[in-house]
Write a structure and sequence with these properties.
Distance between the termini: 14 Å
Number of strands: 3
Structural class: alpha+beta
Shape: elongated
Radius of gyration: 15 Å
Number of helices: 2
Helix content: 10-25%
Strand order of the largest sheet: 1-2-3
């Protein structure tokens, strides 16, 4: 993409994370969630993008996620 290597990962299942400081350390399983992630390798440091949430919402936002990635241009 624009001369940069882009790796996109799409993972669906039960999300077990989220047990950080904002939840008091207790993670609640969330069935039917999806993570869409991308690594954009530039001439400098790589860029990381992640979209996480209920599968239906993430799938609905996929076109917007791809649009953000397509808007990245090397310096």
């Amino acid at each position: 993409m624009h001369g940069m290597k882009v790796t996109v990962v799409h993972i669906s299942g039960t999300f077990l994370g989220g047990g950080g400081m904002t939840t008091g350390g207790s993670a609640q399983p969330r069935a039917g969630w999806t993570m869409l992630a991308a690594i954009v390798e530039s001439s400098g440091s790589p860029y990381f993008f992640k979209l996480l949430g209920p599968s239906e919402q993430v799938d609905h936002a996929r076109a917007a996620f791809d649009h953000v990635l397509d808007g990245i241009t090397p310096l």
